[in-house]
Automatic annotation (TrEMBL):
GO terms for molecular function: DNA binding. Pfam families: HTH_3, MLTR_LBD. Gene3D superfamilies: 3.30.450.180, lambda repressor-like DNA-binding domains (1.10.260.40). SMART domains: HTH_XRE. Residues 8-62 form the HTH cro/C1-type domain. It comes from the Bacteria. This is Helix-turn-helix domain-containing protein.
Amino acid sequence: MTSFGHVLKDIRAARGMSQATLALALDSTQRHLSFLETGRSLPTASFLARICRTLDLNIAQRVNIYDASGLTNPYAQRDMGSGEIHAALDMIEQRVLKNWPFPALVLDPDWNVLRSNSAFDQIFGGLMPKGNAPPNLLEVMMSEIFQGLVQNWDEAAGVMFYRLQRAAAHSPRIAQVLQTAQSQGRFAGMEQHLGELGEIPIFLPIRIALPEGPVMELSSLLGKLASCQDALIEGLEIELMVPLDEASEQTMHALTSNT
């Protein structure tokens, strides 16, 4: 089996599709797919494009399957330190984060903070570790200091846990931090508290009381740029924090009135 055959078979298996099912979706034949997976045939550029379109492969998957095919890869593989990536991050910071009135940041798959706006820096900057390396938001959130600021930890822990569980599938670092946090009992009261809520509300806020400051009820809007065609940038997450009530909104505006 060729490298391309391995990649195609892995993608098909991950979707729970048989060769016959995928062949039908691709308007091809099971024989053709069998030949591709065993290396008896190689894909054409048009058929490879059809695979990407039909299976709605993300950019990282497209980069991988093009590389394995031996065909010219139209998706550039850039380094995180490249000028193009830095320019893309600067654009997100200037066009998105800077124009969001509340705390906002860009996270990589390990939850390292690559960019943040002035509202985030002013409200939460004191919690971030200092140094040349990007601060890791997850390590801050799992710290005793941060947990002490969250008034409804057992309630908010459920929101955090399921988001982290999804992220851990793509990040060994997050998986390790999550495992450590679980062993330390960070999420011990989560299931019991959710069970006691009865009917779970539409939004479960994170209720944060800053040192010597007012309480804020927050959630987050998570997003990506829809037209992104780079695997590294596609893997980033833009987090826009949202106050869930008028008092929290006024508090945030007051805390950032000088920005």
